[in-house]
Amino acid sequence: xxxGHWNTKEGILDIxxxxxxxxxxxxxxxxxxxEEEIVSILMELPYYQQHPEYIFKKAIKHDVLERKAVACLYxxxxxxxxxxxxxxxxxxxxxxxxxxLTSLAFSPIDYTRALEREELPEDAKEDLQSGxxxxxxxxxxxxxxxxxxxxxxxxxxQKEDLGYNLLLLATPDExxxxxxxxxxxxxxxxIRSQYGLNYELTICSEPSFGAYPGxxxxxxxxxxxxxxxxxxxxxxxxxxxxxxxxGLNAAWMASVYAERAELATVFLEQAQGERNPLxxxxxxxxxxxxxDVQTPTSAYILLNILTLLQTPEEVMGKLKKIGQDxxxxxxxxxxxxxxxxGYEDGVSARKIVKPQVYTYWELYEKGLKEHGSAFRxxxxxxxxxxxxxxxxNMGKLTAxxxxxxxxxxxxxxxxxxxxLSPPYYPHVYLKDGERDERARAVVAGCIDKAKxxxxxxxxxxxxxxxxxxxxxxxxxxxxxxxxxxxxxxPLYGEGYDIPLELIAGLDVPTVNIGPYxxxxxxRTERLHIPFSTEVLPALLKHxxxxx
Length: 547
Known about the structure:
The structure is a single chain. The chain is an alpha/beta fold. It has 2 domains: about 10-225 and about 425-475 and about 510-545, 3-Layer(aba) Sandwich (Aminopeptidase), CATH 3.40.630.10; about 225-425, Alpha-Beta Plaits (2-Layer Sandwich), CATH 3.30.70. The protein is about 40% helix and about 20% strand. It contains 17 helices and 20 strands. A 6-stranded mixed beta sheet has the order 1-2-5-3-6-18. The protein has a 5-stranded mixed beta sheet with strand order 12-13-9-15-14, sandwiched between helices. A 3-stranded antiparallel beta sheet has the order 4-20-19. α1 (about 10-20) packs across α6 (about 145-160) and α6 (about 145-160) crosses α17 (about 530-545). The protein starts with 8 loop residues before the first helix and ends with a helix.
């Protein structure tokens, strides 16, 4: 371009369309193509042609696709090497929901035109007709943010007058397990050591999310929710369907637990005037593979829990209490059923068996005591085999490990086994201290500028609700977190290589200043062009120059 950089409406749109054109669906080779495209775009800048050593890559450990985090450094004018990190992810979710228009999902202009002939929800239809919105997979989440950050880099590289370093980091796999960010954390540590950088602030550019159903306000964020993914494995006792009281159906055990865990207010938190979303079940299934008239003997639940302040230890305690409540309910229900059927004598003659409740570590320790080192060796061998068979599906792999360890304790059935499946996201928020106060001031300054210069009202929320890689810039109580993950997450360090020590060592305040769009992860995913290509770039530029 004649002006020498891309930080204009037209330039950002051009970069954005180039990025969206690459189908970088998480867990596919499209992510490799996206990595190459990002580097190719950066190498069009004279600054990186002169300094190719300032472009970096870091491979994800043990990744069969050999995906990499990508970073580029701009060296500003400061002896202290004070550095602002610009964070984004370059993977997107799949496009199965696009139906017959799937072939256009990564061609935003063509897809937007094609939607003119489609039935759409009223809100999406109005946006389409306004001419201010563009539709497509990844257009909002989050290639618009990446395009704006790359455009900012292009302008800063040309002017070379910024009093800080800028380090742009773009990661794969954010939409799944954030393994790309684990590589990114390692890369940040290596670059810091190589160039003596002082990381003072991270600006992520995830899009704004509504705070409640139907909310269309714009928000910037000063942190992000944490996440845990408990897996509750249910071992029942088999019986013929003609004699249902002679056993305990594992599917029923799972449904009882799921009903008590769903939206359980025991996990509700309030912090900085905000509340976390309540738990919800992501998967509920028995493990019976074929039809016959035997009741299911195993089932499991994956439960999504988002946190603001709760520790893994506190969450595990609450999960165990739900298991105990579920067990009591099952016992009471069985007793009432016996009585309703006139089996009072049967109740006294046969003791009703309620499910016991174990955490993974409790059962593992029991196995060590009863079977010694042979038990540990057998479990380790099973885990290695399961990793080969199930690959990267960590939920299924965790459930399979639960099945293996449970097979040693059939005599204890029925029981609940409570454990953790990857991923784990620490919650992050701004605290006291000079760097955190300056981070708050950056967000406040951008909001003031948006109101003054563009008449845009933008709110501040402490916790980004959609999960974000910013979770891996801070970790409080590392030793306590590691202790729980080591005990209750069998894949921790065994394929799920979250670098807790490096994360704790980063300790960088994070904020989120991003584009405005709607319907992330839907076929109507769309981006508001005026805000995202005119207002946002000005605010990002203001943020890095005012810091």
